[in-house]
């Protein structure tokens, strides 16, 4: 066979197996013969093959031994992702009909050879392309929607700036979180990272590609190099992988909004990388067989050992990602044990060599990077769609592979036999223990020791000679009070008992029978009584028992119970010892020589048809786990990884485990400079062409930051200019209105030359006595009148000083008073807010002076003179005495506090009226603004837990409303419900995820679970289509915050109105059960 034919045959095997794997994954059928038959009938059309297998819906006939043997070698491939270097040496024991087989192979190779020379693509690759197209066409028209960007970049580049050497995230460019999870796992393998970064295209790359494969793989390799270089040296917090993703999407021929299967993508990615490195290796070779670094890094070999009718066979196979079944197993070792043994394998090493058939797999060569695919999806024949398996599956941080190695075959078989024997004995012991712990012959069973204890308690109870019915007072009313006591009637007298007469004044002949009936009810219905008679024993007791009988019975019961307890302890101890023996079976040094450390865990959250992917990757240098969730890269822990990855707890579970050989540190070792011996980091890692590429991108980002800063500085300057202009206009207006009356001090004349007129806060201004801050004017006048009454002879300046002290003392009491939530004095006066937040003394003084400088104080001459003194003092304050920027900042914070309060108050009012749609935006903005305020101080805002509770509850209420509309099934309601989810609920989920509190995370889980629960239900095709379209958006775990529309416009409130309304709303919350109070 020529080299070209050998290569073609290898490609043929690889892509035929890919096709079989896809069909098996979709249908859940494991019979290889049946799968091959379906592909033959459908001419390689995957959609028709699925229909053939689904419609057949019959049990597969049990294979006879000959049939099994003919397919055993193919069946072993279900664990294989065959590389182009696959070993094709097989010991053929099928019979003598080899000529026909060789002719068929030759014809197939000749035809494949011709197609390959013409297009560079094998028949199998063309078949895969047709299958993918058909599959996508069949995949419901639900995925034909036009993709819209849900998440947008922050306009502020500082928010997108990388902090120190934090790992760089990857932007989700449209249902591509699978790309991010896989690429980050590979990028953090430093050996793989070096291979990609230092990959140099073949010298003939500038010529026209020889075939379509080169035309596709080499550009992808270059884009992957560019992406990796940005992940190494970019100044950005996250980078855009769009170019590499687009090449992949073109290959998959899918719509851009479809969420690809990750295992399929990973297979394709490794195939492309393998091909790209193979092209380079073939060009560099000099007469010797080329070495492909991708094959050496990710591919291993195992030996399939089988037996049939006394004849043994061996078959060496190559594997990449090793698939493992999850259903029915509790940990990774159980999955591996089941995967390594197929059928009845006792005959493989038995002396009789009986006719039983089966095969074992033994690893002969493990790759440095060992990847396990956890099969968490199965096809539901009844529903006609795949479903996710949420079972819990544990896996270790350190995995020892010695027991699966071919060189330990004999020792492992001995240990497996010993474990099998121990498990059989364990089963017997557990069954025996179960008889002790679940004793009885009826449906209800109890521990035998407890049964004996109950019998002993019954025997030793106080004897009662009367009937349990007779000793109850028949005249006692149901309420438990006693009436007239009568002697207990005999059984013969009960039927002829005359009506009882009550001694009460209201009793009569007509009421007596009714009273008797009412009094007798408790006798027959004791649950209607409120208490038992005092002389009735707490438990049933024997009526007659002698001391001798009791002594003998107690002696027997004590002895039996002691025997049962001893037997139970012995059984439990034996079971524990067997478990410990099994656990320690492979812990001797000889079976701990092949250690593999967990490098990455790829997690899927959601259902089979939709979900979100992220990765946990171990950082050996910081000795911690990192969570890579699209653009978000955060520190994590083993506990969080276990919670999200083991399964059985939520919709999240691991679907891929990546282990690395712990004895090959080069996989994760940093690169050193050959001259200085220093570790290379950042841009120093990159070759010259990629350094230039990253440098240019960083320059673009620096320019973006510079332009942003210039723009913000210009806006700030314009705002200051507008503020100064408004202040000057206000001053000019006040001058014209006050020129008609004489003033003791002219404000304009006393203004220093270097002082810039300042615009006072709007809640401090008094343009008219009826404005929103009228109460402020009244407070000021009240303070002046009280001081003037005590100090009539004082000058205006002394009166001003005394009035300010009096007003400050009043407000200080408010600030120090411990008030209920509905009475918030900060809303009444800015000074209370400033005192509680420890504002500087100069800020307080200027604010109080501004209050007393109000032009609209009473027309009383004393008030006017005090007002003029206050205004003069304001004008005399020099810029170096009071920092006006700081003064404005404090008052801006107070304005923000008032606005946040109005948002909060409005949102709570709407929530109480069950108007959740309108309430949500108010609650969202109030929470966000309040969080910014609280970041500056504890008293800058409101109760964060309270706002968080109602924000969360509002989202849950909207989710319930939307789900109810969806369940209704009517088109208008379904559209409205999904509109609520898409426009309101889904954009707010990242806010809850970013907050990262347990209650918020549980709320998100509840929302998602409600919609995921519909996946297993029967529904109309149009509803299924809408659900399939909606779920990927709901399950996207990105914490990137959506840019919302402008906040709702707020009405104007005076301080008095605001306080009253706030008090009313907060008082109403006291009647609402809330964990946030």
From TrEMBL:
Reactions listed under catalytic activity: Thiol-dependent hydrolysis of ester, thioester, amide, peptide and isopeptide bonds formed by the C-terminal Gly of ubiquitin (a 76-residue protein attached to proteins as an intracellular targeting signal)
The protein's enzyme class: hydrolase
Coiled-coil regions listed: none
Record keywords: Coiled coil, Cytoplasm, Hydrolase, Isopeptide bond, Nucleus, Phosphoprotein, Protease, Repeat, Thiol protease, Ubl conjugation, Ubl conjugation pathway
Record-linked InterPro entries: Papain-like_cys_pep_sf, Peptidase_C19, Peptidase_C19_UCH, UBA-like_sf, UBA_8, UIM_dom, USP, USP25/28_UIM
SUPFAM superfamilies (alphabetical): Cysteine proteinases (SSF54001), UBA-like (SSF46934)
Pfam families: UBA_8, UCH, USP_UIM_N
Biased composition (Low complexity): 731-741
Role this protein plays: The muscle-specific isoform (USP25m) may have a role in the regulation of muscular differentiation and function.
Protein family (similarity comment): Belongs to the peptidase C19 family.
Protein name: Ubiquitin carboxyl-terminal hydrolase 25
Species name: Betta splendens (Siamese fighting fish)
Organism classification: Eukaryota, Metazoa, Chordata, Craniata, Vertebrata
């Amino acid at each position: 066979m020529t080299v070209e034919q050998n290569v073609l045959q290898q490609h043929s095997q690889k892509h035929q197996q890919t096709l079989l794997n896809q069909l098996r994954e979709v249908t859940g059928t494991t019979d290889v013969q049946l799968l091959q038959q379906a592909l033959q009938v459908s001419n390689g059309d995957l959609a028709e093959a699925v229909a053939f297998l689904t419609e057949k819906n019959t049990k597969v006939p049990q294979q006879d031994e000959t049939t099994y043997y003919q397919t055993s070698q193919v069946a072993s491939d279900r664990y294989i992702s065959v590389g182009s270097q696959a070993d094709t040496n097989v010991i053929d024991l099928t019979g003598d009909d080899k000529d026909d087989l060789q002719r068929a192979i030759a014809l197939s190779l000749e035809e494949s050879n011709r197609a390959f020379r013409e297009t560079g693509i094998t028949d199998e690759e063309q078949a895969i392309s047709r299958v993918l197209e058909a599959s996508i066409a069949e995949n419901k028209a639900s995925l034909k929607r036009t993709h819209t960007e849900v998440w947008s970049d922050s306009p502020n580049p500082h928010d997108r700036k990388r902090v120190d050497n934090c790992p760089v995230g990857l932007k989700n460019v449209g249902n591509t979180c699978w790309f991010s999870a896989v690429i980050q796992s590979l990028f953090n393998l430093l050996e793989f990272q070096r291979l990609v970064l230092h990959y140099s295209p073949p010298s003939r790359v500038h010529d026209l590609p020889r075939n379509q494969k080169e035309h596709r793989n080499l550009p992808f390799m270059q884009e992957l190099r560019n992406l990796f270089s940005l992940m190494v040296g970019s100044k950005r917090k996250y980078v855009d992988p769009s170019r590499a993703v687009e090449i992949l999407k073109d290959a998959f021929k899918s719509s851009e909004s479809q969420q690809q299967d990750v295992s399929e993508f990973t297979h394709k990615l490794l195939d492309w990388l393998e091909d790209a490195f193979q092209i380079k290796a073939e060009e560099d070779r000099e007469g010797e067989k080329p070495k492909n670094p991708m094959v050496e890094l990710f591919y291993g070999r195992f030996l399939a050992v089988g037996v049939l009718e006394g004849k043994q066979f061996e078959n060496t196979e190559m594997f990449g990602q090793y698939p493992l079944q999850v259903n029915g197993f509790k940990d990774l070792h159980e999955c591996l044990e089941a995967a390594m043994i197929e059928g009845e394998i006792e005959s493989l090493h038995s002396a009789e060599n009986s006719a039983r058939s089966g095969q074992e797999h033994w690893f002969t060569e493990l790759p440095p990077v060992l990847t396990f695919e956890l099969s968490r999806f199965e096809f539901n024949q009844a529903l006609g769609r795949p479903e996710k398996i949420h079972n819990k599956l544990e896996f270790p941080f350190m995995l020892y592979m010695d027991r699966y190695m071919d060189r330990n075959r004999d020792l492992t078989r001995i240990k497996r036999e010993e474990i099998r024997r121990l498990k059989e004995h364990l089963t017997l012991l557990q069954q025996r223990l179960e008889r002790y712990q679940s004793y009885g012959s009826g449906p209800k069973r109890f521990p035998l020791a407890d049964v004996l204890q109950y019998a002993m308690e019954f025997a030793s109870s106080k004897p009662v000679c009367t009937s349990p019915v007779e000793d109850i007072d028949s005249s006692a009313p149901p309420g438990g009070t006693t009436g007239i006591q009568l002697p207990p009637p005999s059984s013969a007298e009960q039927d002829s008992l005359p009506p009882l007469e009550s001694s009460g004044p209201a009793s009569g002949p007509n009421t007596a029978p009714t009273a008797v009936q009412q009094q007798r009810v408790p006798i027959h219905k004791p649950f209607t009584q409120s208490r038992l008679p005092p002389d009735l024993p707490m438990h049933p007791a024997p009526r007659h028992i002698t001391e001798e009988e009791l002594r003998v019975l107690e002696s027997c019961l004590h002895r039996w119970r002691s025997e049962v307890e001893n037997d139970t302890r012995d059984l439990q101890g034996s079971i524990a010892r067997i478990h410990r023996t099994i656990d320690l079976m492979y812990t001797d040094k000889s079976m701990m020589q092949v250690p593999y450390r967990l490098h990455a865990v790829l997690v899927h959250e959601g259902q089979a048809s939709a979900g979100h992917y992220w990765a946990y990757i171990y950082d050996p240098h910081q000795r911690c786990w990192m969570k890579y969730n699209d653009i978000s890269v955060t520190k994590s822990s083993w506990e969080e990884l276990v919670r999200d990855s083991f399964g059985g707890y939520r919709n999240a579970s691991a679907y891929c485990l990546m282990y690395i050989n712990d004895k090959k540190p080069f996989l994760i070792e940093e690169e050193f400079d050959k001259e200085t011996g220093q570790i290379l980091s950042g841009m120093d890692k990159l070759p010259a062409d990629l350094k230039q590429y990253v440098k240019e991108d960083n320059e673009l980002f620096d320019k973006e930051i510079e332009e942003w800063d210039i723009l913000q500085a210009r806006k700030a300057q314009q705002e200051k200019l507008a503020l100064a202009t408004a202040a000057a206009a206000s001053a000019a207006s006040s001058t014209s209105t006050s020129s008609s009356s004489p003033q003791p001090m002219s404000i304009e004349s006393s203004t220093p030359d270097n002082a810039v007129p300042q615009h006072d806060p709007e809640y401090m201004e008094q343009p008219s006595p009826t404005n929103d801050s009228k109460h402020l004017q009244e407070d000021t006048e009240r303070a002046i009148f009280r001081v003037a009454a005590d100090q009539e002879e004082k000058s205006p300046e002394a009166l001003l000083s005394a009035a300010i002290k009096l007003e400050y003392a009043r407000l200080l009491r408010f600030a120090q008073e411990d008030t209920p939530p509905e009475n918030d004095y900060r809303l009444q006066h800015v000074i209370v807010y400033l005192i509680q937040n420890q504002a500087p003394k100069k800020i307080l003084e200027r604010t109080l002076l501004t209050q007393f400088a109000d032009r609209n104080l009473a027309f009383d001459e004393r008030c006017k003179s005090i007002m003029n003194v206050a205004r003069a003092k304001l004008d005399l304050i020099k810029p170096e005495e009071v920092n006006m920027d700081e003064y404005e900042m404090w008052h801006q914070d107070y304005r923000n506090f008032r606005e946040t309060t109005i948002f909060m108050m409005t949102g709570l009012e709407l929530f109480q009226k069950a108007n959740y749609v309108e309430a949500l935006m108010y609650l969202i903005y109030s929470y966000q603004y309040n969080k910014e305020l609280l970041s500056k101080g504890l008293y800058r805002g409101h109760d964060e837990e309270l706002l968080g509770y109602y924000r969360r509850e509002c989202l849950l209420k909207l989710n319930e409303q939307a789900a109810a509309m969806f369940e209704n099934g009517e088109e208008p309601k379904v559209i409205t419900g999904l509109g609520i989810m898409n426009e309101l609920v889904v954009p707010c989920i990242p806010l809850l995820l970013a907050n990262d509190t347990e209650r918020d995370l549980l709320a998100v889980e509840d929302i998602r679970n409600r919609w995921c629960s519909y996946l297993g239900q029967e529904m109309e095709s149009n509803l299924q289509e809408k659900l399939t379209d909606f779920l990927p958006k709901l399950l996207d775990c990105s914490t990137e915050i959506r840019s919302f529309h402008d906040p709702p416009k707020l009405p104007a409130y005076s301080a008095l109105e605001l306080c009253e309304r706030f008090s009313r709303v907060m008082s109403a919350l006291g009647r609402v059960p809330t964990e946030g109070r």
